[in-house]
C-alpha cells in the first residue's frame, strides 16, 4: 500500500516537528517502509492493512523505535555469533500466520546465509498479542529453553500452526510437542503448569509495544548496537537479503 498524495504534507510535518537526532536517510527509509510494506503485518485492529492516517502514525512509531528498541540482554534468545557486527531482533507471535511465512522463507535464508556464517546474530522476542494460546505457546518455548531446546521448540511451533486460538496450542498439545522433541516432560509440564514465564512473556510484549511494534512479524536490523533498518511484516527473502547486505557494507 502506498501513502496517498494528500497525506504527504502531513508526513513532511511529522518529520519536521519530530525532535529526534536521526539522519535524513533513516527518516526517509522509515517513511518508505510505513507506506509500502506494512501489508504483510498481522494487525491489532480488524486484521487489515492501515489506511493513510494509520500509515502516518506508523511513521512516528518507526522513528521512535530507532531510539527505544531494548538492547540485547542475558534473557534474550540469541542464535549465532553473539559478537556479530549485525544483529536482527525479531518480535513475533507463534500463532501469527505471517510470522509462520516469514519463518519458512526469510528466516531460513537468514540462518543459512548469514547466521551460520557468523555474519549475523538472530534474536527472537515474544510479541504475544493474538490471544491466550499466543501467550501460552511463548511460555512453552521458554520452558523448552530450560532444557536447551528453545530453537527446536520455536521451529516446531511455527511448522504446526493451525489457526488462531482454536486449541492447537492448548496446554495438552504443548506438552505433547515437548514429548515429540524428546524433552523431560515431567520438568517441562511442571514449568508450563506453574506459569513460570507468563510475566516474562507479557513484559517482552509490552517492551515491544513501547518500541513501536504494533503487529508481527517486526524486526530491527542493528549494526554495532544501533538500528540501521527494519524488516516490516513478512518481507520476502530477497528484500531481507538486500537489507542485510546493505547493513554489512555500511
Q: What does the secondary structure layout of this molecule look like, with pairings?
A:
Layout: H1 8-17, H2 24-36, H3 52-68, E1 77-79, E2 86-92, H4 97-115, E3 120-126, H5 132-145, H6 150-158, H7 171-180, H8 185-193, H9 198-210, E4 218-223, E5 226-232, H10 237-249
Parallel strand pairs: 2-3
Antiparallel strand pairs: 1-3, 2-4, 4-5
Helix pairs in contact: 2-3, 4-10, 5-6, 5-7, 5-9, 7-8
Please provide a written account of the structure.
By secondary structure, the chain is an alpha+beta fold. The protein has two domains: 1-68, no CATH class; 77-209, Glutaredoxin (3-Layer(aba) Sandwich), CATH 3.40.30. Helices cover 51% and strands 12% of the residues. The chain contains ten helices and five strands, in the order αααββαβαααααββα. The protein has helices at 8-17, 24-36, 52-68, 97-115, 132-145, 150-158, 171-180, 185-193, 198-210, 237-249, and strands at 77-79, 86-92, 120-126, 218-223, 226-232. The protein has a five-stranded mixed β-sheet with strand order 1-3-2-4-5, with helices on both faces. Strand 2 (86-92), helix 4 (97-115) and strand 3 form a beta-alpha-beta unit. Helix 2 (24-36) crosses helix 3, helix 5 (132-145) runs parallel beside helix 7 and helix 5 (132-145) packs across helix 9. Mean pLDDT is 80; it is low at 1-61.
